[in-house]
């Protein structure tokens, strides 16, 4: 294969590819219908011209046919009058018009057939154009739907779902961290002395235990317990505590 053939084939292939990519179904369908309508106009004009020629040929044929009959009658008249020379001349005129009429009859028959064929083609083309218009609207709707679906798929394909999900995961972790910090702060502030005493005061078991402690303190401690010193406390450190405890006892006795 020569270099020129290869280049020619490559150019044709590239041109065909460019044309295929540039073709818009909607525009192509519109142009196809326009072309068919132009063909319909041309066919109607051709049919009109053929019919006009048919009418003119028919008129000429009828005229020559009438002349043929007229000169035939004149020949008979001249012969009846005994004028053979005049009758011969009339027959010659008759033959001339008859030959012309025969020729025109052939043309008229041919033109009549052409008119019939063109009329059938005209009707068929009109039917095709009507069908093409219906198909055009349907195909345009399908093309528009296909374009919309293609754009949607391209939009979805261009969306970065991984990055979006990663953003959601980061925000979820951040919210969880904030919740943990809030819970920790609540636990730290809720472990204060006031809340501990409030918890003790709200419990019935604590009240019962406190009442039992009061009764034990009012009843006094045993001599054995008073005689045994504490192994972990010194007399100097117990003096303020004992005094405060004695004062608490006195207050309880008064109540």
Features:
single chain; 255 residues; mainly alpha; 3 domains; 91% helix; rod-shaped
What features would you describe in this structure?
Residues 246-255 have a biased composition (Basic and acidic residues). Residues 26-60, 115-155 form a coiled coil. With 255 residues, the chain is mainly α. It has three domains: 10-159; 162-191; 193-218 and 246-255, no CATH class. It is built from eight helices and no strands. The model is unreliable at 221-233 (pLDDT under 50).
Give a quick precis of the structure:
By secondary structure, the protein is mainly α. Helix content is 91%, strand content 0%.
- The radius of gyration is 62 Å
Average per-residue pLDDT, rounded, comes to 77
Major sheet summary line: none
Number of helices: 8
How much of the residues is beta strand, in percent? under 5%
Oligomer designation: single chain
Low-confidence stretches: 221-233
Kindly give the count of domains.
3
Give, in order, the helices and strands.
HHHHHHHH
Distance between the termini: 127 Å
List the helices and strands and how they pair.
Layout: H1 3-22, H2 25-80, H3 84-158, H4 161-190, H5 193-202, H6 204-219, H7 223-227, H8 235-254
């Amino acid at each position: 294969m020569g270099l020129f053939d290869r280049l020619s084939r490559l150019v044709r292939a590239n041109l065909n590819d460019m044309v295929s990519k540039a073709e818009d179904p909607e525009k192509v369908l519109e142009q196809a219908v326009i072309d068919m309508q132009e063909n319909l106009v041309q066919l109607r004009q051709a049919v009109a011209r053929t019919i006009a020629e048919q009418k003119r040929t028919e008129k000429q044929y009828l005229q020559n046919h009438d002349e043929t009959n007229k000169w035939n009658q004149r020949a008979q008249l001249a012969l009846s009058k005994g004028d053979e020379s005049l009758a011969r001349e009339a027959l010659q005129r008759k033959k001339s018009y008859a030959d012309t009429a025969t020729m025109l009859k052939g043309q008229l028959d041919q033109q009549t057939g052409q008119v019939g064929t063109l009329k059938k083609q005209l009707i068929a083309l009109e039917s095709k154009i009507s069908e093409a218009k219906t198909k055009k609207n349907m195909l345009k709707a399908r093309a528009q739907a296909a374009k919309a679906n293609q754009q949607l798929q391209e939009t979805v394909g261009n969306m970065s779902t991984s990055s979006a999900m990663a953003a959601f995961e980061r925000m979820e972790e951040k919210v969880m961290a904030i919740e943990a910090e809030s819970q920790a702060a609540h636990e730290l502030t809720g472990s204060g002395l006031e809340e501990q005493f409030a918890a003790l005061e709200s419990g019935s078991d604590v009240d019962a235990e406190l009442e039992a402690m009061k009764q034990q303190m009012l009843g006094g401690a045993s001599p054995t317990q008073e005689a045994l010193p504490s192994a972990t406390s010194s007399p100097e450190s117990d003096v303020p505590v004992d005094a405060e405890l004695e004062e608490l006892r006195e207050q309880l006795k008064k109540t």
